[in-house]
Write a structure and sequence with these properties.
The structure is a single chain. With about 725 residues, the protein is an alpha+beta fold. The chain contains 14 helices and 38 strands. It has a 9-stranded mixed sheet, with helices on both faces. β6 and β7 form a beta hairpin. The radius of gyration is 25 Å and the shape is globular. About 50% of the residues are buried.
Length: about 725
């Protein structure tokens, strides 16, 4: 057992020596570096690992740091600080959060994306000479890149900047709403992206296209003469997205595959004769067809992923066959790797809230598990010879660590030990199950406990409902510790936190995932979550008189349903940036949200108005007597945030008129979730004050976000306040 990143380990051990186990705050937790991505060198001797830490506030970017770890000895070294790498070539001292670091084709250097002060560019660093060079220039930022197998060409995707002038705004609206009515628009994706190929020998640049909203999933043919990528619309699901192939010799673009729905991660076989891709298809037996222009084939909603494979003949593909069916539950969240030396396709398959890497034979479809069964995989890569797999693995009680796995014999070697040097004491987590109220399923969830938990004592309990609505909380240390209100902090203040994975979630069985169709709110909340609450009480874990509920996004909708249909159970509630009126939200929301409402409610409001009205929490708001804290983002770059804020005001008005304690926090220019460390801490403080008062009887003092001394603007009527924010940056600027 070895400890890579020795400097980091020593530093954090010194910090934790003086840290208090309780109480904690967000900065304590985010003080630990989190492994984000891993790439193994072509020869399998070294591993490039990206460590990330979020930004403290919206005025700075998050930090990423690059480390190289020896795959055999575990010895490690940081590639270099930002100042060491860049010198005077760029301002600032931090990498961007999404560094997208990769090895070069020959393993002699590394590449990544970072800012040069004006736009994000591709940089390279020779690991022997330690010389850093900026490979790209230009006004538009690079958001993705892919080096050709021979290293002669570099494919780039450049993203347009947000629109500033009225004329450009009209052009964008015409493009997205007239020419492409199935698309959607916001200021982050207001101009079409540009796909370029740079000839690294001559410096010549060829623009393949600048007329699509976004391009992703680039893949070079093994001979380096063809580039495949997927044109996409900027939504979670997207429409039918046939990948296109650009030929460097003919300079022509052709479609080689005609998928039935959304396609992701197309990749060539090692000999270049076949393609494999992940495609989202309707659930088996599903009959619902979405409206024309709204067939958002989103894996999170109405569709599930499968993997298809086809031979490529000339400029077209043969009829594809299914390599991995939906019964095997391939993960839609990670690319897969086709490695001939390893003997097949390496990809994660889901089971019991874990993704485990499997090696799949492309001829028979037989799968062999590669990663250990007790871990969930966050990122993985394979050496060129197919012998070594580098993987970031985690579970509920193990922080993300780097492992090397011998694919031939299954030998597992752990290279890092971040868990030994965390600057906080993690909350212990138990895996719990209970029977659903309709006796159809065993429902699974996670129970986060105080570090000094005593089985003989009953604890106040917070039920944290995730969004998505199919956003499964996987067996993932960082996800469980930091979800929404940060269960680790709540546990450090004496609460237990239950995080259920109700029906509709992926990672259990296709039947479980499909069960939410036609059963939204009644199935996931009333039939699955509520029995979990009763089970924790019956087992002597939770105090029945001290139960609260919280949630983000679709989880916020679930919170509103829980307190309106089951008002006697919850003594306090908190919701963050979710809709409560599904009728109006269908027409006001972005198309991917219309899509999941279409699917789960089996029609539009105009076809199924009674269902929409019944399953909208605001319909039952007169039954709410639970004190409710709300948070909404308003005026952000995403134009679809505002309807949720307005609906929150509607709900607050109803509760205020009825004398139910309620408070809204409006966070200007914010994202859907709470992204910076400081903003997350303010939200946690607000929840602690709310729950401590209504569950434990503590004196309530409106926390700092609503303290007039810290506000740029105060709206005291009906308990409304605005959170202070930094000046808009290019990432979240309003349209002017």
């Amino acid at each position: 057992m070895r400890c890579a990143l020795g400097a980091y380990c020593a530093l954090l051990l010194l910090e934790v020596a003086g840290a208090q186990a309780v109480p904690m705050n967000a900065e304590d937790i985010y003080g630990a570096p989190q492994p984000l991505d891993v790439k193994i060198s072509p020869d399998g001797t070294k591993v490039l690992m990206t460590l990330t830490q979020p930004a403290l506030d919206s005025s700075i970017r998050g930090q990423s740091r690059l480390w190289i770890v020896d795959a055999d000895s575990g010895e490690s070294k940081e590639v270099g600080s930002a100042n060491e790498l860049y010198g005077n070539d760029r301002p600032g001292t931090d990498f961007s959060v999404q560094a997208r670091a990769k090895w070069s084709h020959d393993g002699k250097s590394i590449l990544w994306i970072d800012s040069d002060g004006a736009a994000d560019q591709v940089w390279t660093h020779d690991i022997v000479s330690r010389k850093t060079t900026k490979l790209t220039t230009g006004e538009l930022s690079v958001v993705d890149y892919e080096e050709s197998p021979q290293g002669t060409h570099l494919a780039l995707v450049r993203a347009a900047r947000p629109i500033r002038d009225a004329a450009a705004l009209k052009r964008a609206e015409a493009y997205f709403f007239s020419d492409h009515p199935e698309g959607w628009w916001n200021s982050s994706w207001s101009n079409p992206s540009r796909v370029e190929i740079v000839d690294r020998r001559t410096g010549g640049v060829v623009t393949i296209t600048d007329s699509i909203p976004f391009a992703t999933d680039m893949s070079w043919h093994p001979l380096g003469e063809q580039l495949m990528f997927v044109p996409r619309f900027p939504s979670w699901g997207g429409m039918k997205t046939p990948p296109v192939v650009y030929n460097l010799r003919s300079r022509k673009i052709v479609e080689v595959i005609s998928p039935d729905s959304t396609l992701r991660y197309p990749t060539w076989s090692p000999d270049g004769t076949r393609m494999a891709w992940l495609e989202h298809v309707l659930y088996s037996g599903a009959s619902r067809t979405l409206l024309p222009g709204r067939n958002m084939a989103g894996g999170l909603f109405s569709h599930v992923p499968i993997v298809k494979i086809a031979f490529v003949v000339g400029q077209s593909a043969t009829k594809p066959s299914v390599l991995v069916s939906q019964d095997s539950q391939p993960s839609a969240g990670q690319p897969f790797i086709w490695n001939g030396a390893a003997g097949g396709v390496l990809m994660p398959l889901l089971s019991n809230a874990k993704a485990r890497v499997h090696l799949i034979d492309p001829e028979s479809g037989l799968a062999r598990r590669i990663t250990p069964p007790e871990y969930h995989v966050k990122s993985f890569d394979v050496s060129r010879d197919g012998k070594k797999l580098a993987a970031l693995l985690t579970n509920a009680n193990t922080p993300t660590e780097l492992f090397i796995i011998d694919i031939s014999n299954g030998n597992v070697d752990q290279l890092t030990h971040f868990g030994r040097s965390l600057p906080f004491k993690p909350a212990p987590v138990q895996s719990v199950t209970w029977r659903s109220g309709d006796d159809r399923f065993d429902v699974h969830g996670w129970l986060v406990l105080p570090t000094d938990y005593k089985p003989t004592r009953r604890y106040p309990m917070i039920v944290e409902l995730h969004g998505g609505p199919a956003g499964t909380i996987m067996d993932d240390f960082w996800r469980i510790q930091t979800e929404n209100i940060m269960p680790a902090i709540m546990a450090s203040h004496g609460y237990i936190v239950l995080l259920p994975n109700p029906r509709g979630d992926a990672g259990y069985s296709p039947a479980y995932t499909k069960a939410l169709v036609g059963d939204l709110m009644t199935g996931d909340v009333s039939m699955d979550v509520l029995p979990g609450v009763h089970a924790m009480i019956a087992r002597g874990i939770a105090d029945a008189t001290k139960v609260a509920v919280s949630g983000l996004s679709a989880g916020a909708t679930r919170v509103a349903w829980a307190i309106s249909r089951h008002p006697k159970i919850f003594k306090a509630a908190s919701l963050s940036d979710g809709p409560v009126n599904l009728v109006s939200y269908w027409g006001q929301a972005s198309p991917q949200n219309e899509a999941w409402l279409d699917f789960y409610l089996e029609g539009t409001p105009y076809e199924r108005m009674r269902e929409y009205i019944h399953r909208s929490p605001i319909t039952h708001a007169a039954a709410i007597d639970t004190p409710l804290l709300m948070r909404f983002a308003y005026g952000s770059a995403n134009l679809w945030d505002s309807p949720k804020t307005i609906q929150g005001k509607e709900l607050q008005a109803i509760l205020y008129a009825r004398g139910v304690p309620t408070e809204i926090q409006i966070e200007p220019l914010a994202g859907h979730d709470v992204r910076t460390v400081n903003a997350r801490q303010l939200w946690v403080e607000a929840n602690l004050a709310w729950f401590n008062h209504y569950l434990l009887g503590s004196e309530y003092r409106r926390p700092s976000p609503c303290d007039s001394a810290r506000l740029s603007k105060v709206q005291p009527q009906k308990g409304v306040c605005a959170l202070p924010v930094a000046q808009p940056t290019s990432a979240n600027a309003q349209i002017r």
